[in-house]
Amino acid sequence: MRTVRWNKLARLDYFQNISYLQQNWSEKDAQNFIDKVFEIENMLAKGNVEFQNTDRVGIKRCVINKQISLFYRVVDDRNIELLRFWNNNMNSKNLNL
Predict the structure, then answer these.
(1) Each residue of 65-80: pLDDT tens digit?
(2) Rounded CA gap, 50 and 43, in Å?
(3) HSE, side-chain direction, 13 A CA sphere, residue 28
(4) Rounded Cα gap, residues 64 and 39, in angstroms
(5) Each residue of 19-45: pLDDT tens digit?
(6) Closest CA to 24 of 67, 86, 71
(7) How far apart are CA 18 and CA 24, in angstroms?
(8) Most buried of 47, 62, 90, 91, CB within 10 angstroms?
(9) Residue 68 β-bridge partners
């Protein structure tokens, strides 16, 4: 089992997305987002999945839902670092990892 660590930006993005969903959509949408992130985090920890490569060396992308993608990196065989939860409508050139 691998350890999944969240960096500060990933944690900030995560809570901002939850807040946005609660304020502008519904509690159910916010809970669906939370559940999906939990599911993906568990998949990454088990090490039984690899998601899409990006044009940035060592960075992978996982689509959480139509609006949000998770960017992460494999640190080594035992560690994963979650980097950002990114709005898919924003220009990825502005993505600060």
Answers:
(1) 999 999 999 999 999 9
(2) 9
(3) 0
(4) 10
(5) 999 999 999 999 999 999 999 999 999
(6) 67
(7) 10
(8) 62
(9) 87
